[in-house]
Amino acid sequence: MEYSLFYSLSAALVLGLLIGSFLNVCIHRLPINESLIAPSSRCPACLHAVRWRDNIPVISFLLLRGRCRDCGRPISRRYPLVELANGVGYVLLAWRFGVGLETAVYALLYSSLLVITFIDLDHQIIPDRITLPGMVVGLTASSVILPLGFLNALIGLLLGGGLFYGVAVASRGGMGGGDIKLIAMIGAFLGWKQALLTIFIGALAGSVIGLFLMAFRGKSRKHPVPFGPFLSLGAVVSLFAGPAIWTWYQRLGAF
């Protein structure tokens, strides 16, 4: 591996881990409408402020053996998991798209999807504070930075959001408003083709997990399963492999 690439990927990893630490703050505070800036990070059990040396992504968790320095209560493994997921994601983005503004935009989308995933898993909500500004950022970035172009992004936003809105109306509430805004945001960043692919992958993954829960966990068909994480998964797959999947599909249709 060339030294320049090694340093770029290393920098992407460190940046991803650091931002991942902030994402944990977002995941915890956004659903309860707390400020993301103040107060500083604190233990959710004893509310003692976290020292800077205990707030180093992943490393502090390992050194503390997963426990708060002050009260000894276990620290959720989700914290290092989110940090690692964001760090690895940034490395893959830098590897796939290189270092530049395009990668920075995709990193913003990736981190947003990570926050949405865990908030939806915990609270079954998708915050408008992420998706509504995300639509604007996606359309703007597609116009001036991404190769997508404004028209493709606008069609992606309207097509994705319109399809889900139609499902919500037809099912009389079977599709949540948060999911509608989420797929619209994804369409603004990735365009209409990848929005459709996102929906397909998300629906497929959701169906597999739903069948698993019914078969092995005794859940009924009415058991609520948040769809945001599956849409986020579909968006990430579409981001990295969407064009290749579409090419494969077109070749498959030629036979």
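(the above was protein one; protein two follows)
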Amino acid sequence: MTADSNPPIPACASADGVWRRLRVPAGLGAVAPGGSSWVVEGGRIVWIGADAELPAAYAGRPEFDGAGRWATPGLVDCHTHLVYGGSRVQEFALRLAGADYEQIARAGGGIVATVAATRAADEQSLYAQAAPRLRALLAEGVCALEIKSGYGLELATERRQLRVARRLGADFGVAVRCTFLGAHALPPEYAGRADAYIDAVCASMLPALAAEGLVDAVDAFCERIAFTPAQVERVFIAAARLGLPVKLHAEQRSDQGGAALAARHRALSCDHLEYLGADGIAAMRAAGTVAVLLPGAYYALRDARPPPVQALRDAGVALALATDHNPGSAPVLSLLLMMNMACTLFGLSVDEALAGVTRHAARALGLQHSQGFIDAGRPANFVVWDIDAPAELAYWIGGRPRCTIVRQGRIAGAAP
């Protein structure tokens, strides 16, 4: 981080005006890497060009001098479970003592423990618990994120989770995509009756929530401790009937063929992927499905098998990054830290990590036309960083470079 010699850009209600002398990393904007200006009007970028080419029509507008700073698109956290009740701090100690993810889940911990706490929480309590988590992400420049349900596993609580997610987006002025994850785990009342629970997900829960406008996409967990490919496919078929895109928690603990299944259904993304094989990679490439890497969960679970990054790279599959914020396997509240971990643990380059939290993450949410890239005609979602080089965004461990965040055309202010 620089010892800032430039005065900070002042915070104000609107970002409308001329933003001068900004540099954008290659591949993240329709701008020259060496320096550009753009005009924000009515919350959208309406012109981009060289500083000396500003049209006379925009003369006299308020000016924001970037003074050669680096700017990126607003960051996108494309996989979070941000709304839930309680915590699972006790499982941290169990893992340190040697218990693994599946042992904790089979002993009644894991997802079902959070289900109990979430079912016991009312809507206002869920909102109050989630809001500080969201503030932490927004302070680092996040301008869009996904929030999944999946800790209710019955209609009323899934509805509460999704209603809270919608409220958070509206109240904090951030784009939130709500994903229905009813097929996350088998609830206790359906023990031994997984197919009957999938019946309820497909015939009752999903149609009701979609009719209320609470669902933007549908997810599932395809794994030995969760649901089989056949059960997941039933969920995907139900989603298709409602015109909803799908995504999948796939190949996290074993290769169940979930990624290939999801790709056949034109999934937006497959996420985790530590055990992804060649067939799944080929299917994802053919479908244009994004691979979402979750290094926080890999780290917290002390996994030894990283996702096949080089094979995905060789196949041309887009690589996105996300926090996977959840109370058990990834209590992560920093997307910048995930950039560092992806570079350090998975071997991504800085350019790949930057694309992974911007344009590829936006694709993983179906938001590629409004998020993740700086271009004329798009909503004004960008971050101006006080850094000497873009690599600093992945370099600092626990540091947060000072920045000015423009989210949905409004200046959010400088993060400390």
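Reviewer note on protein two: Confidence is low (pLDDT under 50) at residues 1-11.
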